[in-house]
Amino acid sequence: KYRLTILTLYEMVKKNTNSKK
Per the confidence metrics, is the pTM higher than 0.85? Predict the structure, then answer.
């Protein structure tokens, strides 16, 4: 149940980091 949320959050963070960089 939470795994999906964590995965989505992780992806968002990764994309955010890429955008920041």
Answer: no
